[in-house]
Write a structure and sequence with these properties.
This protein is mainly alpha-helical. The chain is built from six helices and no strands. α1 packs antiparallel against α3, α3 (46-70) crosses α5 and α4 (80-105) runs antiparallel to α5. The longest helix is centred in the C-terminal third of the chain and has 30 residues, at 112-141. It is elongated.
Length: 157
């Protein structure tokens, strides 16, 4: 229990950074005409969408940061940023399967495939920003994690 709490504590700052990167990317995307069309087609209100994207980014950022620290040695690369991006894309796949597919294809939005692809591209950009920033902050805050992994030492000792 104590080890898990320590990992959550270490995951806090990179998780917040990743969530802010997710939100900032979402805000930049939301200013484009295609995003305005997307919101109109799906009846998405602008300001609640901004709040929801911040909360979603923070949740995903914390999870990516936690799993990066918890399973550092099991992720198949030596670069912390790449490890974080891999975890972020795993989160993207899970969110797409559990949320995006049912919402887009079980509603009366036409053409459903077009809006699914647009939303998917938005999510790829947001998740990529989250993964890069989370990995970068983990690398800057915990540079010895990489060295310990290379030396075969346990991160949690």
């Amino acid at each position: 229990m104590n080890r898990s709490l320590e990992i959550w504590r270490k995951a806090l700052v990179p998780g917040i950074g990743g969530g802010v990167a997710f939100w900032t990317t979402n805000f930049a995307i939301s200013r484009t005409p295609i995003a305005a069309e997307y919101r109109a087609a799906l009846s998405i209100s602008y300001f609640p969408m901004l709040v929801e994207s911040l909360l979603a980014g923070l949740i995903i950022g914390f999870c990516v940061s936690y799993f990066l620290l918890r399973f550092f040695d099991k992720i198949p690369t030596k670069n912390q940023i790449l490890k974080s991006v891999i975890l972020s894309f795993i989160a993207l796949i899970v969110v797409t399967i559990l949320i995006e597919v049912p919402v887009r294809f079980l509603t009366n939005t036409h053409p459903a495939l077009r809006y699914f692809l647009i939303g998917g591209m938005f999510n790829v950009l947001r998740i990529l920003a989250l993964g890069i920033v989370t990995g970068y902050l983990n690398k800057r805050l915990y540079p010895l994690v990489h060295l310990k992994s290379l030396d075969g030492l346990n991160l949690h000792s």
